[in-house]
Amino acid sequence: MAEETVEGQSKGPTAPYPAFQTLKTLIKPFKEHGPPSKIDRSVLTSFSGAVGSQVLTMLKFLRLTDDDGRPSKKLQTLVEAYDTDAWPAALAVVVRDAYAPLFKINLETASPNEFNDEFRRAYPAADEVSRKSITFFLNA
């Protein structure tokens, strides 16, 4: 997982911050053709360079690929569930696993400030990146 650093000290994993629709855009063709044996820049041709890097980081963070870009069983399950009634449940498994620290608080009753504080504590980043990461999580 990608980690941000400040003055040489690790701040923790970088939560995904592309638009959530980017995940769906990536998965859609996998539904028809299956995921490739390795997901790297060569299969991300529909994304710009910067977004492609964000997609690779997103996949690792969500544990949909390993550090070498090899798809996980979770990705296969998500692909199979795409555009079906099974999608919400499959996505929930991925989200709950990847964002486990956030589920230590009651997300249904947490105030916006409590949620934001907990998110930023678990996934520290620059303000703009945090805002985008929070938006990704909420859309997921």
Helices and strands in order:
Elements: E1 3-6, E2 9-13, H1 20-33, H2 49-61, H3 73-81, H4 87-98, H5 112-122, H6 127-139
Antiparallel strand pairs: 1-2
Helix pairs in contact: 3-4
Tally of individual helices: 6
The arrangement of helices and strands along the chain is: EEHHHHHH
* Mean pLDDT value: 88
Can you tell me the overall shape?
Answer: globular
Largest sheet: 2 strands, antiparallel
Write up this protein.
There is one protein chain. With 140 residues, the protein is mostly helical. It has six helices and two strands. It has helices spanning 20-33, 49-61, 73-81, 87-98, 112-122, 127-139, and strands spanning 3-6, 9-13. The chain has a two-stranded antiparallel ribbon. α3 (73-81) runs antiparallel to α4.
